[in-house]
Write a structure and sequence with these properties.
six-stranded antiparallel beta sheet, 14 strands, 2 helices, mainly beta, globular
Amino acid sequence: MSIKSDNWIIEQSKKHELITPFLEEQVREASGNKIISYGVSSYGYDVRCANEFKIFTNTYSSIVDPKSFDSKSFVDVVADECIIPPNSFALARTIEYFKIPRSVLTLCLGKSTYARCGIIVNVTPLEPEWEGHVTLEFSNTTNLPAKIYANEGVAQMIFFESDEICKTSYKDRGGKYQGQRGVTLPKT
């Protein structure tokens, strides 16, 4: 198993729609303003956050239960910025849509710019033959409000290709998050 380079990411995105929309180079500036970078890097792809957010709130004193999640625990926001309350979290999604090959496992890591501000990005692995928009979780570990920027880089996807094809892929087992679009809440 090996990590895949920018050359592989570019080739897979052009031929097999690994990432859509796809940027073949890293963008660090827009309209003359510095931004949090996104696009291809040496051994990964920096994804952007869309402008759709679900901000966690405890207005109804709900219990966070992954088997019976109450969607009223979130406030929906569409904006270029998202303010996450102290010691809380928000969900968002990538602008990019992924189609992971059967021989590939993709891991997501948060960008250091956010980590250095106490904002942690959590995403589970993108399994072989999974496809969809990636739901992102941003945890604000600080006791101050924290800001996330839409349409800028938030995390890096790293691709690992196995030397053998898996027996059963995410698609084969009918994974419940297959083909997800938009910010997707927990499903049971």
